[in-house]
Design goal:
This protein is an alpha/beta fold. Helix content is 40%, strand content 10%. The radius of gyration is 15 Å and the shape is globular.
């Protein structure tokens, strides 16, 4: 087995699909887990750090050239995807945008494959037990994540 250091954004940016296989456990992070991750990310900004170790991920190539099968790290990967979606929604709802960080770039770079049909457009494909719930987060606002109250600079 060969290990490489890669940033999570490389996976999100470079893959057309990040697939969590059916044999992986359901998504089960609680608010406390998400809050800790969010606090770590805010600490990065406060301390002007460039990177943060989120833990290791184990992946293997999928059937197609840019498909990645996630063997370990699916909880963190799913949480980061949900966090990016929440950020995109918050920016849209508050008319916030920047040159590099804006709702369209977040969606096109990290969340959706813009060259696919509606059925196949999601970059992250959770296990089948979680996929329907994950897709609902992209639609009706009643399913949007509750916002944590943090002072975030954009």
């Amino acid at each position: 087995m060969e290990g490489n250091v890669r940033h999570l954004t490389e996976y999100l940016r470079g893959a057309t699909k990040l697939i969590i296989p059916v044999y992986q456990r359901n998504y089960d992070w609680k608010i406390e887990n998400c809050k800790r991750l969010m606090e770590d990310l805010i600490m990065l900004e406060d301390e002007n750090k460039q990177t943060h170790f989120l833990g290791s991920m184990v992946v293997k190539p999928g059937n197609l050239s840019q498909e990645i099968i996630v063997i370990d790290g699916q909880q963190r990967l799913t949480t980061v995807s949900i966090l990016l979606l929440a950020l995109k929604n918050w920016m849209e709802n508050h008319s916030k945008t920047g040159k590099r960080i804006n709702p369209k770039n977040i969606e096109d770079t990290f969340l959706m494959d813009t060259f696919r049909s509606d059925v196949d457009k999601y970059k992250l494909i959770p296990n089948p037990r979680d996929f329907e719930t994950y897709k609902k987060l992209f639609g009706d606002e009643k399913f949007f994540c509750q916002t944590f109250k943090f002072n975030i600079k954009l």
